[in-house]
Amino acid sequence: MRIGGQMFFTDYSMTPTELALALEDKTGNVVADSDLRLDMTVAQVRTFVATAPTLDGDQHGPSGPELTGVDQPMWPYTWGRAFRFLGFPVELLYWYGVTHTLVLGAEHLRALPARVIVAGTHHGFADVPLVRYGLAHSAARSLLRRMVIAAGAMGFAQSGLFGKLGILAFGLYPLHQYGEREASLRRLAQLADTGNTVLIFPQGTHSPPEQERADHPAVRFRPGIAHLAKALDAAVVPFGLAGTEHLIPPFVKDFHGPVVAGIPVSLRRGPVAIAFGPPLTLAADEEPHIFAARLQTVCYALTRRAEQALGSAHDRP
Q: CA-to-CA distance for 39 and 259, rounded, in angstroms?
């Protein structure tokens, strides 16, 4: 296969992630896992790569550099968990801003397998506190003590010291979505293999609910979740959430006001909801993009359920 003047000797066992990494390395353009399918023709791949944005360096994405290295130290996710008390101010903000929290499907969190990944839709900056609240008010509350939260590495480049504080206060892990993506996923798998539970948003970005309903390609689940589940032999606990996009503006580019650590300084009060579903497991012969699509279907349905629950609660006298 020849793309942009480069020759690729394609192994038919190559996964979309491996092909994406190879294309990024050879062409210098951003190629996400979700952009590729194994049944794409050479012409389709060539057309996509020709129009893809450039990396502009070894570890750049569409919004800037991913400065945090994939050799993220282990200690913040082991004995460094002692610093999680630093996240208490954010918990106070959650209690102030959220007028009511609905937790649906908590029965699915009983008797979970030993290894689980928690994954779902991603609408705004309040999503992590909402997921934590949902788990805390369920039989899976013990997961909170050993939780690693995968977050885009580009945000850490923009956050400076606040990014490092997030690692200590919440167990955030800078996940590379463009350069060094595979190595970053391997490191996350190592952290999970030490007994941590991973919280990940497979969309990789804040996603407007209307784009989810339209199945917009920009917000589709990425196959990295399947690779992580396979590496850990873990079940995936799906969730869908609603209401968080109304608390804090989800996109800085649309916000006119002060911004701290990449987060708009604006907080509206309102209700939120989260719905959990039964754990999903990756079938032995299931392709990563097929599992990601299956998980997406479940999480989108759970999101709609959470939205309906919020609407019903609002309509009550």
A: 43
pLDDT, position 8: 44
Measured from the Cβ of residue 93, the count of other Cβ atoms closer than 10 Å reads: 15
Contact 153, 175 (CB under 8 A): yes
Alpha carbons 48 and 29: distance in angstroms, whole number: 10
* Residue 147 Cα distances to 41, 156, 185, angstroms: 40, 18, 16
Report the number of distinct structural domains present in the chain: 2
Are both 111 and 221 inside the same structural domain? yes
pLDDT tens string 78-129: 888 888 888 888 888 888 999 999 999 999 999 999 889 999 999 999 999 9
Residues 23 and 82 in one domain: no
Do 245 and 160 lie in one domain? The reply is yes
Query: What does the pLDDT read at residue 53?
Result: 61
pLDDT band at 316 (very low <50, low <70, confident <90, very high): low
Q: Which residues are bridge partners to 273 per DSSP?
A: 102, 242
Q: How many H helices and E strands in the chain? A: 10, 13
Give the pTM.
Answer: 0.76
**Helix, strand, coil tally for the chain in percent (to 5):** 45, 20, 35
Q: 69 and 35: one domain?
A: no
CA distance 90 to 220: 29
What value does the CA radius of gyration of the chain take, rounded to a whole number of Å?
A: 19
Owning domain of residue 258: 65-315
Kindly report the backbone phi and psi dihedral angles of residue 102, in degrees, each rounded to the nearest multiple of 5, phi listed first.
Answer: -100, 125
Residue 14 has pLDDT above 90, yes or no: no
56-59 CB contacts, 8 Å cutoff, 24+ apart? 57/179, 58/179, 58/180, 59/153, 59/176, 59/178, 59/179, 59/180
pLDDT at 36: 67
